[in-house]
From TrEMBL:
<dbReference type="Pfam" id="PF00561">
    <property type="entry name" value="Abhydrolase_1"/>
</dbReference>
<dbReference type="InterPro" id="IPR029058">
    <property type="entry name" value="AB_hydrolase_fold"/>
</dbReference>
<dbReference type="InterPro" id="IPR000073">
    <property type="entry name" value="AB_hydrolase_1"/>
</dbReference>
<dbReference type="GO" id="GO:0016787">
    <property type="term" value="F:hydrolase activity"/>
</dbReference>
<feature type="domain" description="AB hydrolase-1">
    <location>
        <begin position="172"/>
        <end position="289"/>
    </location>
</feature>
<keyword id="KW-0378">Hydrolase</keyword>
<protein>
    <submittedName>
        <fullName>Alpha/beta fold hydrolase</fullName>
    </submittedName>
</protein>
Amino acid sequence: MGQGLGPGARRAPAQGAVGAGALATTAAATTGLAVAIARFVVTPVRHKPDDVELLEVRPDRVVLAATAQTRAPGRYGIWTGGGAGHLRVGEVLAHDEAAGRVERTLLGVDRGAPAPGPGRWNQYFHSGTPAGALGIAHTDVVVTSPVGGLPAWWVPAAAGAPHPPQRRTCAVLVHGRGATREEALRAVPVLHAAGLDVLVPSYRNDADGPSSPAGRYGLGDTEWHDVEAAVRWALERGAERVVLGAWSMGGAIVLQLVARSALAERVDALVLDGPVLDWFDVLDHQARRNRLPVGLGRYGLRLLAHPGARRVIGVDGPVDLRRMDWVARAEELRLPVLLLHSDDDEVVPSGPSHRLAAARPDLVTHVPSSGVFHTKEWNLDPAAWEAAVLGFLAAHGVLPAAAAPSGGSGAGRPGGSTG
């Protein structure tokens, strides 16, 4: 009894309280970081800073400060003057590593007078509207969705297209997280020329679209309602069938549509470029890149699914990312899918695309590539990208067989793999 009442025993509760307090502080800090990660993932980015430096502009080439982007193979655009100007560049002509300079072909100036100074890299290559950037007539339309009017581009099929589809078919093209409708411009010419109508909608929380009540992304869990509204718009205006094309998070969006919408029965195929097939895999990768504990990112994603996510994270409602894991849900696929994905994708790793292709070779056509970053497969080789898309659509009856490129690699065959 005396030992129990001694000085050491009297200090023990205080020491225990300090230990408990430290644990509570650590737990609170961990939760705070997880909440910050979750908020970052679902928060739209409104301002994108300049990220390249033009050192010289000549009639046939530009000289840029060397970065991973400016050294990358392929063709790209550059916005200048805060977006007022735009130019297009082609392949690397020279790279002086010691001087930190890269020379690239100047393919064209769309607007403005390019001069040395800051600019912003444009992976979409094109900038503007279908009419302004591509010379393809379009109509600005508004699609009515649950959150309001969604601006969209409507591009009717080319008159006298050499390979008209069997049935009137509309390609609905969906951009990725933080991107704009311009991301889809790269795919418009080939689909338009093949005889497909094309609809390029915005969705909630886009820079030019309506906000959701919370103003946060649902990572596909909510945006699919907007794309469903776009599909309905196309069907009400004469489309008999639909093809869904998407980039990055757009892949997560359209996969939710075909899993949850009654209009899925009108969809013939999916064309996905650098798609998010598993958000957990994406966030694990980003945590490692940023030297954060993988478990911290996972904790943040679990918080998104919590009933209190609306209050803690600021989303419109809980977002359960397990139902957006299409490797785990591979057996539920019912439609042909074309996956175009670079193995050097630094944002959305290609592992899930490889795994989904292996799990469903009966439905998934996988066209891997390498040497380029996220959603830049077209930029590396536009002709190969377009041939893969046309071959796939012809293989699945969306286009007549004559539309498939002759003598190609067979990338359009179900289960095929090229790269």
